[in-house]
Write a sequence for this structure.
């Protein structure tokens, strides 16, 4: 039995990553619940992470995995801040429907 | 089709279908649980690529910490099923799917194009770069400054979250 990296070409990982990213885009554009929109953004970040790890493994360089590490740190900070904003908005407007949260719209 | 490709396809199909379930379920808690399934599948894919460190950090940080945060916020807001959040204008939904198809098409074209790099390395090398030892050495020498900046970023996030989620300024 071969190692998996010999058996599966890079383009398979890129394809899976592209499909996951597109699903995330569809979720952001169709859902109206702010928390679900946030989860879709996490999904997109993860699909890009898969691309980075794939290229890192196939190019024999560790830089991609370091970048994934930083993406995870930024995603953790971003999630905490975003959810705090959602809580603050909910406290003021009693809704997290993104169609009704338009106070910063011109 | 050999064993590795079969297992890869199984994991990928579970990942994609759980992502689809996540964006289609009305209840956000169900969505969170499907997203956790998706993160575990991605972690298995990282193991396929010999990225052991990233795979375990994926489970610890995403499935362990970030998703628990989501569940906490959903519980705190006490929303229930979002029947009232249902989409009413269907033309916007059609437009969203068209845009999604365009994005997917563009990425697929990018993948299909020959990029002129020849990614072939030995399996031993691929297994080596994913280890904690190798990543740690790179992180604490070459990437030391960004690593320290990350700690500042997390500190700013902690302070910001407390300020934002607090009831009132005194």
């Amino acid at each position: 039995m071969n190692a998996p990296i010999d058996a599966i070409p890079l383009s398979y990982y890129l394809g899976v990553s592209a499909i996951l990213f597109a699903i995330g885009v569809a979720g952001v554009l169709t859902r109206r619940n702010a928390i679900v929109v946030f989860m879709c953004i996490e999904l997109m970040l993860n699909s890009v992470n898969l691309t980075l790890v794939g290229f890192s493994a196939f190019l024999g360089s560790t830089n991609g995995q370091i970048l994934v590490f930083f993406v995870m740190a930024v995603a953790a900070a971003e999630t905490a801040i975003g959810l705090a904003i959602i809580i603050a908005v909910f406290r003021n407007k009693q809704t997290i429907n993104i169609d009704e949260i338009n106070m910063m719209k011109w | 089709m050999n064993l590795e490709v079969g297992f890869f396809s199984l994991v990928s199909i579970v990942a994609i279908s759980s992502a689809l379930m996540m964006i289609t379920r009305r209840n956000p808690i169900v969505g969170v649980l499907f997203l956790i399934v998706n993160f575990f599948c991605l972690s298995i894919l990282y193991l396929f690529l010999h990225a052991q460190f990233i795979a375990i950090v994926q489970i610890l940080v995403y499935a362990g910490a970030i998703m628990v945060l989501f569940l906490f916020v959903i519980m705190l807001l006490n929303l229930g099923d979002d029947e009232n959040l249902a989409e009413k204008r269907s033309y916007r939904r059609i437009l969203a799917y068209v845009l999604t198809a365009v994005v997917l098409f563009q990425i697929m074209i990018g993948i299909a194009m020959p990029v002129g790099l020849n990614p072939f390395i030995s399996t031993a090398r691929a297994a080596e770069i994913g280890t904690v030892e190798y990543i740690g050495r790179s992180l604490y020498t070459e990437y030391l400054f960004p690593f320290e900046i990350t700690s500042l970023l997390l500190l700013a996030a902690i302070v910001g979250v407390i300020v934002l989620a607090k009831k009132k300024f005194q």
Remarks:
- Helices of chain B lie at 3-24, 28-48, 52-77, 90-112, 123-129, 132-141, 144-165.
- Residues 66 and 148 of chain B are 21 Å apart (CA to CA).
- Chain B touches chain A through 84 residues (CB under 8 Å).
- Chain B has seven helices and no strands.
